[in-house]
Amino acid sequence: MPNVKEIKTEGLNFDLEEMGQAGLHFGHRTSRINPKINPYLYGVRNNVHIFDLEKTAEKLKEALSFIQQIIKEGKVMILVGTKIQVKNLSKEMAKECGLLYVVERWLGGTLTNFETIKKRIEYFKSLEKKKEEGELEKYTKKERANFDKEIKDLEMKFGGIKNLEKLPDAIFVLDMKKDNLAVKEARAKGVKVIGIADTNTDPTLADYPIPANDDAISSVRYILEKMKEAILKSNTSSVPRDEAKERTQFSSPSEIKK
Question: Residue 255: what pLDDT?
Answer without folding.
Answer: 39
